Amino acid sequence: MKTYREQLGSLQEAIAKAEQASEQDLEVNGNRRRKKSANLDSLYRREAFLIRMIEREDGGSIVLGVPK
Predict the structure, then answer these.
(1) In this structure, are residues 40 and 23 in contact, taking their beta carbons and an 8 Å threshold?
(2) Pairing of β 31-36 and β 23-28
(3) Which residues are within 8 A (CB) of 34 and not within 5 positions of it... i.e. 6 or more apart?
């Protein structure tokens, strides 16, 4: 199982991708529809949970950054 930090990194990558493509217009057989790629609210809640768990493990707060 991944550590909380590893899970957070993977989740933040998924959030970034979902934010970039949060809604797309699709046309199927002449009918236009919207497709949501992810439920961002759920992803944000999971992110907050993982941050709290990392803070608990570290005994304080963490600094988040964008990986290079």
Answers:
(1) no
(2) antiparallel
(3) 23, 24, 25, 26
Higher-confidence position of 59 and 54: 54
Give the integer Cα–Cα distance in Å for 61 and 56.
8
The rounded distance, in Å, linking the Cα atoms of 35 and 16 is: 17
CA dihedral (3, 50, 15, 28) positive or negative: positive
Q: Which of 22, 65, 12, 4 is nearest to 43 (CA)?
A: 12
φ, ψ of residue 64 to 5 degrees: the values are -100, 140
Q: How confident is the model at residue 61 (pLDDT cuts 50, 70, 90)?
A: low
